[in-house]
Design goal:
By secondary structure, the protein is α/β, with parallel strands linked by helices. It is about 40% helix and about 15% strand. The protein has one domain: Alpha/Beta hydrolase fold, catalytic domain (Rossmann fold, 3-Layer(aba) Sandwich).
C-alpha cells in the first residue's frame, strides 16, 4: 500500500483479512502498533498516517473533515483497484471512528468495494458530539487532551515535543469542528461499537447510537476504562476484532 499514507508494523502470514486503522485526534499510525502485534498473524494490519505528524510532520495537516476523508478514500480505492481480492475492515478510535465511518460512506456512494465490518471505538454516532471544536484555542485543545487521558500525557509536559505535536492536534480539532451530520442512507456494513465504561467523552448509550447508521448487524462491546481503554485492554480488544473479522455478525 501507499507508503505515504499507510504503515505496517507486522507482516501478515497468509491471505487473511486486512484491518485498516484510523488514529484519534493528534494520534499517528503508531497508536495501533501494539494492537497489530496482538491480533492473529494472518491479519494484515494497515495503519493510516495522517499528514502533519511523525515522518509526515512537514506536510500540512487537514483542517476539514471532508477533505481528509476524500484523501483517505482515494488511497483505499487505489489500493483496491491495484490489489483487490483481500477482504478488509475499518477500525477507528475517537476522531478515527468518524473518519472511518465517513470513508465507508464515501466508498459506498462511489460504488467501490465495501469493508466487511466497521469497528467504531471511543465515539458515539455522528450526531452525538456537538462540541465547538473549531473555536478551541491551544489552551482548550490541551485541556481537552488532558481530560481524556492517554499515552500522550508526558508529551504535553515537554515543551520541545509539544511544539511538534500541537500543530496536528490543533488541525484535528478544527477538522472535527468542521464536521456536521447532513443525513443520508445508512450503511449496509455490519458495525461493532466499542467503548470504555468510564469514558469522560461519551456514554455507553452514545456508543449504541451507531446502530441507527447501518442496516447490517450491530454489536456493542463495553470494556473497563476511560477514553483510551484500548491501550489497557489489548487482548480483549483483539479478541473482539478477531471475532468481527472472522464472522459477518458478532454477537452483542
Amino acid at each position: 500500500m501507499n507508503s505515504t499514507w499507510f504503515r505496517r508494523f507486522t507482516t501478515a502470514v497468509g491471505d487473511g483479512p486486512r484491518l485498516v486503522c484510523f488514529p484519534h485526534a493528534g494520534g499517528s499510525a503508531t497508536a495501533y502498533k501494539d494492537l497489530a502485534s496482538t491480533l492473529p498473524a494472518n491479519v494484515d494490519v494497515v495503519c493510516v498516517q495522517y499528514p502533519g505528524r511523525q515522518d509526515r510532520y512537514r506536510e500540512e495537516p487537514f483542517t476539514v473533515m471532508g477533505s481528509l476523508v476524500e484523501a483517505v478514500a482515494e488511497e483505499l480505492a487505489r489500493e483496491s483497484a491495484t490489489v483487490g481480492g483481500r477482504p478488509y475492515a475499518l477500525f477507528g478510535h475517537s476522531m478515527g471512528a468518524l473518519v472511518a465511518f465517513e470513508t465507508a460512506r464515501l466508498l459506498a456512494r462511489r460504488g467501490l468495494p465495501q469493508p466487511t465490518r466497521l469497528f467504531l471505538s471511543g465515539r458515539g454516532g455522528p450526531e452525538t458530539d456537538s462540541a465547538p471544536y473549531h473555536l478551541y484555542d491551544d489552551a482548550d485543545v490541551l485541556a481537552d487532551v488532558r481530560r481524556l487521558g492517554g499515552t500522550e500525557q508526558a508529551m504535553l509536559d515537554d515543551p520541545d515535543i509539544l511544539e511538534l505535536v500541537l500543530p496536528a492536534l490543533r488541525a484535528d480539532y478544527r477538522a472535527l469542528g468542521s464536521y456536521s451530520w447532513r443525513g443520508g442512507e445508512p450503511l449496509t456494513v455490519p458495525v461493532t461499537a466499542l467503548t470504555g465504561d468510564s469514558d469522560p467523552m461519551m456514554t455507553v448509550e452514545d456508543a449504541r447510537t451507531w446502530q441507527a447508521y447501518t442496516t447490517g448487524d450491530f454489536a456493542l462491546k463495553v470494556f473497563p476504562g476511560g477514553h483510551f481503554y484500548l491501550f489497557d485492554q489489548l487482548e480483549q480488544v483483539a479478541d473482539t476484532v478477531t471475532e468481527g473479522l472472522l464472522t459477518r455478525a458478532a454477537v452483542s
